[in-house]
Specification:
heterotrimer; A mainly alpha (292); B mainly alpha (328); C alpha/beta (382); A: 292 residues; globular; B: 328 residues; mainly alpha; two-stranded antiparallel ribbon; 2 strands; 80% helix; 1% strand
């Protein structure tokens, strides 16, 4: 029985960890690579979920069509946010960026509240939530499906950054914008595109997770905080790192919650970050060393 | 320096006279809120403006101060004039402890790690029921009896003056600090860490001293808050206080002592006026914040001093032109 | 320097303006009642339904000609369920809007912070929601609670949980706020007194989305029943995920469980769960049918616990004002102590401490998408 408990808790933790990685994917790009401390990340996630709910539940659209729409809409919104807003504060340190994105998050949350109201909603999913028994461990079809999608997205993002010309241009831009410009990269487009990609990932995560949890205008703040924890644990801007960061967080929360108590579960991530930054300031997978 | 001193003294005199001019309990309630906000903004500004790092968990010290005052008052029955200084002291000590851990980090890492501290403290306040009474919070924090002796207006005016006194103390100490050798060293670190190090300034030490002072002022604000609202719960560690603080400091202009004062006044009044917009108010508030960042990048004080400079500069250029003309 | 002085002066003129507005508002042709509810933040959903109920009550009264020849006007402020924000809202409502009475502030902690303000200004404050038992033990004459306390609910239903649903090994799970902790503590106490054993007590944060850890722990604890104190958003996820894991444990909930949104969110997963609530749309009290029809017609959904709470609070205040035949605060307070109100969930009267009694609380079982009333109890004066 004890072994069964441990297996089930670990399985819960791994699934939860993948979900954390998924919801932090957009922030890995925007915060990890671009160094934009984006406090509107959770709100982009929420908007993705709300669009997903509106199209699947009220218009009866197909789940995957809706997902494509969410990606396109959030991508466009992200591009505009970067080109119209973030560009003003680029290279000015953390404070203006944080204040700007906080202002944006307040605006998005409360405008969403005005439009869709306060009621919790869910995204209609084609996958079943009936229990699946794998030995002593119970899972559901919808969760397994989401884990698979999550893995696919992360691999896709990794390949995009590491294997394509665009990805090379992105990496060049974030390492040395001046040099990148000199070799002919249009850096303002690269910034815009990266933010767009980050927003699209955030929106997709919001919709995918909205199909098993709930979507509500007011949950953005919690999502942002957890995503920051994951990105820092994973070492800023590394996709394998984001997965490991998510899995560590998920497992730690599940085991602590399972064996100690659940009241303090939300403190685990923050505690881990504090310890991690003291022991390994640049994360598990971070390579870059900060310099002046 | 002279400008800051003169401005702050003028503001002090105006504030001293305010209750004579401005009548009404509600205006005084807003006045108390302004005092409390000025302390918070001044506290955050010491770190943002003078260390040049951005602590996103600055509510930690406000919250520690509020809980210290609340616990000493409710559990030990200590009076106002003991609990509030104690709040400042405990907050300063925790400032040294948290600063010693976090000041090793910089940039976004510092931002997030301080936020983590505040969140951990919030969760402790929520879960350690034996000490903090958990989410039920601590209520019935005693107000000083002489403040409660008169009618409501008297109570508010008393608290307004207590707040004003605490603000004056905070600003006086900040002023002396900023224009002391320690303060100048801290500014040197902010401007260029490596040059400062090369002339023998140890950034960590000066950061820590500034951190302790900022924490003490934050704790003072917390103690004042606890006694005015006579209720303290885990929400004192909430991110919403942090948001107000950032806006006050950055909208007013960081790195000056005047900026956060102006910022606090404006933000409190703005939040009150926006109430009239009902459901729209937070959407408008968000837009205003975005607009401030884009159109007032150096804050209101930065904007004022820039105009001041260009005006003076333009004048000089003009007179130079004239002399040139005359010489020709 | 000049400019700065001007700025500062501007701020003071702003302050003056504020006080001017306060005096301007006193030229009244309506009777203003202040409503403080969370309209943003984690419990905004519940606060909004409370305001809906309040509006319905005000409209009904106005449609019948209002009070003392005037219309009732609700001035709604967002207290965010936070003590400081709720106090600020109360100060604004009392000073600027000159409300004659307050209804609010949802979370017990926020209400607790507003109570001294109401007492100080001598303005009656009524809550239809805050259930923390100590609130009515503070000796605050201006405070009235038109709902059950955690303790009263526990006393009413612990017997049924033990006797009829036959729970012996009970797990307790609550949202980690004043409501969750209060409800868990009271039910655990009552159940223990009856002889049930506690196998687990856990709390979770508002906005938790994954309950698998808690549910796994619940399964391992060997409980035959679980008591859950949570609101719609958290409770619905809990119930859904419990079904996903296929746990056979009986669920007994308190909070906004019997609402139409809850049932819609959970679907089949809510089949068979029990909930103790002060109100369910399926109650058969004389006043309820008309209330459900009016509410559904206006808001396109059946009323829930908090809609009724808001409705009752405003109705009770209005009746008191009518009885007092005045908007004088002391006279309204006097009249409130003599409350004799028949609401959708029964009869309300206040004892000397301001605690209501005489109304009905029900135990419902969610069956086929509707809350079926299994048992009901009248809250007695104690």
């Amino acid at each position: 029985m004890d072994m069964d408990l441990f297996l089930q808790l670990s399985a819960n933790g791994l699934v939860l960890g993948m979900f954390y990685a998924l919801s932090a994917l957009g922030l890995t790009l925007v915060f990890g690579l671009m160094r934009v401390v984006n406090f509107a990340h959770g709100e982009l996630y929420v908007v993705g979920g709300l669009i997903g709910w509106a199209l699947t539940e009220t218009l009866g659209l197909n789940f995957f069509v809706t997902l494509a729409i969410v990606v396109v809409v959030l991508g466009a919104a992200g591009y505009l946010i970067d080109r119209l807003l973030i560009t003003w504060v680029r290279g000015q340190g953390e404070e203006p960026t944080i204040l700007l994105t906080i202002g944006l998050s307040i605006f998005i949350t409360n405008t969403a509240l005005l439009i869709v109201g306060t009621t919790p909603q869910t995204v209609l999913s084609p996958f079943k939530s009936k229990p699946l028994f794998l030995g002593p461990v119970v899972l559901t079809q919808s969760r397994l499906f989401l884990v698979a999608i999550c893995a696919a997205l992360i691999v896709g993002a990794y390949l995009l950054i590491q294997r394509t010309g665009l990805g090379r241009a992105m990496r060049a831009t974030f390492q040395d914008p001046m040099a990148a410009q000199l070799v002919g990269i249009r850096t303002s487009h690269i910034y815009g595109f990266t933010f767009a990609l980050g927003a699209a990932f955030a929106g997709a995560a919001g919709m995918l997770l909205g199909s098993i949890y709930v979507v509500q205008a007011s949950i953005g703040g919690v999502v942002s905080l957890k995503a920051f924890v994951v990105v820092i644990l994973g070492g800023m801007g590394s996709f394998p790192g984001a997965i490991v960061g998510g899995l560590i967080l998920g497992l730690a929360e599940a085991l602590w919650g399972g064996y100690v108590n659940t009241g303090y579960v939300d403190a685990i991530g923050f505690g881990l970050v504090i310890v991690m930054l003291l022991v390994r300031p640049y994360g598990l997978f971070g390579k870059r060393i900060e310099r002046a | 320096m002279a400008f800051e001193r003169n401005f702050l003294l003028t503001a002090l005199v105006l504030a001293l006279l305010a209750p004579l001019v401005v009548q009404g309990d509600y205006a005084m309630h807003i006045g108390v809120n302004i005092m409390f906000s000025v302390m918070l903004a001044t506290s955050l500004n010491l770190i943002v403006g003078y260390i040049g790092e951005f602590p996103l968990g600055h509510t930690a010290f406000f919250g520690i101060g509020a809980y210290t005052a609340a616990l000493l008052s409710v559990r030990a029955g200590l009076p106002f004039y003991v609990t509030v200084p104690a709040a400042a002291v405990v907050a300063a000590v925790s400032g040294v402890l948290i600063g010693a851990v976090t000041l090793r980090l910089r940039g976004p890492f510092f931002v997030i790690v301080t936020l983590c501290f505040a969140e951990v403290l919030r969760l402790i306040a929520n879960n350690w029921v034996d000490l903090t009474n958990g989410p039920m919070g601590l209520s019935g924090i005693a107000k000083p009896s002489w403040a409660m002796s008169g009618d409501i207006l008297w109570q508010k005016v008393t608290f307004f003056y207590i707040g004003l006194f605490l603000v004056a103390v905070s600003l006086f100490i900040s002023y002396r600090f900023v224009y002391s050798n320690v303060g100048r060293a801290a500014i040197a670190v902010r401007e260029n860490r490596f040059v400062a190090q090369s002339v023998g300034i140890w950034p960590f030490y000066f950061g820590l001293v500034t951190f302790a002072l900022a924490a003490a002022i934050g704790g003072l604000a917390g103690g004042f808050y606890a006694h005015y609202f006579s209720y303290v719960g885990p929400e004192v560690f909430d991110f919403s206080f942090m948001i107000s603080m950032i806006i006050m400091v950055l909208a007013g202009g960081k790195g000056t002592l005047v900026g956060p004062v102006v910022g606090a006044v404006i933000v409190v009044l703005m939040e009150e006026y926006l109430r009239d917009f009902k459901e729209l108010r937070f959407s408008i508030f968000g837009l205003i914040v975005v607009a401030i960042v884009i159109f007032l990048p150096r804050g209101l004080m930065g904007f004022v001093s820039k105009r001041h400079e260009t005006y003076k500069g333009a004048g000089k250029a003009l007179s130079a032109d004239k002399t040139e003309l005359r010489d020709a | 320097m000049q400019l700065c002085k001007r700025l500062k002066r501007g701020a003071f003129i702003g302050l003056l303006g504020l006080s001017a507005m306060a005096t301007a508002a006193s030229a009244e042709d309506t009777i203003k009642i202040g409503v403080i509810q969370p309209l943003t933040g984690s419990v905004a959903y519940n606060g909004t339904t409370d305001v809906n109920g309040s509006k319905l009550a005000a409209d009904e009264i106005n449609a019948k000609g209002g009070l003392l020849g005037k219309k009732i006007e609700l001035v709604v402020e967002d207290g965010q369920c936070k003590p400081a924000n709720s106090v600020n809202a109360a100060e604004k409502l009392i000073q600027r809007d000159k409300v004659v009475a307050l209804s609010g502030a949802f979370c017990s902690s926020a209400t607790l912070a507003v109570m001294p303000v109401a007492q100080n200004y001598k303005i009656p404050l009524i809550t239809g929601v805050s259930s923390s038992a100590p609130l009515t033990e503070k000796g605050n004459q201006w405070f009235f609670r038109a709902t059950e306390t955690d303790a009263l609910l526990a006393k009413s239903f612990a017997k049924i949980l033990y006797g009829e649903i036959k729970l012996r090994k009970v797990a307790y799970i609550g949202v980690n706020d004043d409501f969750g902790r209060g409800a868990v503590a009271e039910f655990e106490k009552q159940m223990k007194d009856l002889g049930a054993t506690t196998v687990m007590t856990e709390f979770f944060e508002h906005g938790t989305s994954d309950f698998y850890t808690l549910l796994t722990k619940l399964k391992a604890s060997g409980a035959d029943g679980v008591f859950v104190a949570a609101e719609t958003q958290d409770g619905s996820i809990f119930v859904k995920q419990k079904a996903e894991l296929g746990l056979p444990v009986k669920v007994f909930g308190v909070g906004s469980w019997a609402t139409s949104d809850f049932i819609k969110l959970t679907g089949d997963a809510s089949e068979g769960i029990y909930a103790a609530v002060p109100y369910a749309a399926t109650m058969t009290t004389p006043k309820n049918k008309g209330f459900v029809e009016a509410y559904t017609a206006r808001f396109k959904e059946a009323p829930g616990k908090y809609s009724t709470a808001g409705y009752n609070a405003i109705s009770i205040l209005a009746q008191a004002i009518a009885r007092a035949n005045s908007t004088d605060a002391e006279k309204i307070r006097e009249a409130l102590t003599k409350t004799d109100y028949e609401g959708p969930n029964g009869h309300f009267q206040f004892d000397a401490k301001g605690q209501a009694s005489g109304f009905t609380v029900v135990l419902v079982q969610l069956t086929k998408g509707s809350p079926k009333v299994v048992d009901s109890a009248t809250v007695e004066e104690h």
